Amino acid sequence: MSNLTLHPMKEIRIIIQGEHLKFATDLLDNKATGYTIIHNISGKGHHGFHTAHPMFNEMDSIIMLMSVVAPEKVEPILAGLKPLFDRYTGVMFVSDVAVSRAEYFSPGSARK
Fold first, then answer.
1. Residue 52 φ/ψ, nearest 5 degrees
2. N or C: which end of the chain has fewer CB within 10 A?
3. Phi, psi (rounded to 5 degrees) for 20
4. What's the pLDDT score for residue 13?
5. Are 95 and 11 in contact (CB under 8 A)?
6. What is the mean pLDDT of residues 78-94?
7. CA–CA dist 51, 7 (Å, integer)
8. In whole numbers, what is the pLDDT of the chain averaged over residues?
9. Average pLDDT, stretch 12-20?
């Protein structure tokens, strides 16, 4: 692994109700080069245990979005999500990560 150079970045994980997916993806489309969505997650938190059994569709379930961004993109994403978290259930985690291909996470360099 000595031939790889790692570049510091931030990983953002957003856990929200599925009905708010479009709000979050619209924000990330403008602030990040990409993201991963995991539908129908289960877990226990502030409001107790939540199972991954959507009643009618995936919008009724809990989802997690994950994205890796440059450190300077974290604050604009936080500001964009604040109205959502002020009104609805959800949580966000920001962690330090390192990536081997920094160009994949830089604006204007998204691969086609």
1. -95, 50
2. C
3. -100, 10
4. 98
5. yes
6. 95
7. 37
8. 86
9. 94
CA distances from 74 to 5, 24, 28 (A): 23, 14, 11
> In the numeric block, which tokens belong to residue 20?
């708010």
What is the 3-class SS of the chain, one letter each residue?
Answer: CCCCCCEEEEEEEEEEEHHHHHHHHHHHHHHCCCCEEECCCCEEECCEEECCCCCCCHHHCEEEEEEEECHHHHHHHHHHHHHHHHHCCEEEEEEEEEECCHHHHCCCCCCC
What is the distance between the alpha carbons of residues 74 and 10, in angstroms, rounded to a whole number?
Answer: 7
Confidence check: pLDDT of 9 > 60: yes
Model pLDDT for residues 32-70, shown as the tens digit of each residue = 999 999 998 877 777 776 665 555 555 568 899 999 999
Q: Is 104 left (phi over 0), alpha (psi -120 to 50) or beta?
A: alpha
- Which two tokens mark 93? 């985690």
Residue 12 has pLDDT above 50, yes or no: yes
CA distance 52 to 108: 36
